[in-house]
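hey so u asked for the seq, here:
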Amino acid sequence: MFTILKQSLYFATKYQRFFSVTMKGKTIILNKKFQGFPRDENFKIVEESVPQIKDGEFLVQAEYLSVDPYIRVFMKAVGAPIMGEQVAKIIESKNPKYPVGEYVVGEFGWRTHTVASEKPGDFFSLPPRVLSFGDLPKSLALGVLGMTGVTALYGLQLCEPAEGKTLVVSGAAGAVGTHVGQLAKMQGCKVVGVTGSDAKGQRLVKELNFDAFVNYKSENFEKDLAAATPQNIDCYFDNVGGDVSSSVLHRMNKFGHVVICGAISTYNDENTKAREVQTPVKVNHLVMEGFSVTRWRNKWNKAVEDNLKLIQEGRLKYFETITEGFENTPEAFMKMLRGENFGKAIVKV
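ran it, structure tokens below
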């Protein structure tokens, strides 16, 4: 009798989706439009029904969610699920390219369950990708082996790093900054990281072999920057914008390169002001170029492979700041915007 009961429970659990049992999932929506720094009231967790999958589709269950600065800039639709990537496990499938039990990374947003297909995401225009990292953490698909890794690898090339050049990277303790600094060191650059605390800066020097760091919150920031860059600056990888970047641009060498990846210091302040930068750009014949990682979507997989090889060779380190619990995703997002993470900020669902 016990064996029959056990088999019946197994059958009911395995096939519950085929007997009109509606699965419920959770999603975090934009409850109110962002104005200034995000607050709890901007977010709301809602329950949603998960539809039955159709031919060509598959159902995933979230394991890791990504929190990134671009969400603050581009998330504007009130009532819509918060945008973003996640690593998820396939729990049902009617698509042979996405078998049950595999893990994928895709633009599924801040939700626990998603019915997906091969259709590219709305922001990065990439289809869900099945992970193949071996024994490495699957969460790396959101960082060093994902979007931020592609950003660092190809974005740095625009700086034209080379032996003997001085490179400054702002937001140096973040996912992109820690990656850029390591790659620049591999190419023979002197690397100076700009960060928001001495503790973070010391980690950059001790653990990642940065040559120096400068704390932008210090009253002596400009003097410290000058001391760290006695031969001025050849390359600047900008993640923060604002007055920090103005200070760096005023120390650039002639024909230097400035690459604009982000401006996180300005995202939550509509009244941000910074010193003019046209004069140093003009006088020093600087090359200034902005970019979005979508520029390299056709070379995305190659960048992931290259970064994976560097990790396997022991040449590239990665760092993650992990927040536990789906309901804590908004708080993880706000902590990231406050600069409380070292490396990639993610949420373990």
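Residues 8-16 have pLDDT under 50 and may be disordered. The two ends are 38 Å apart (CA to CA).
lmk if thats what u needed
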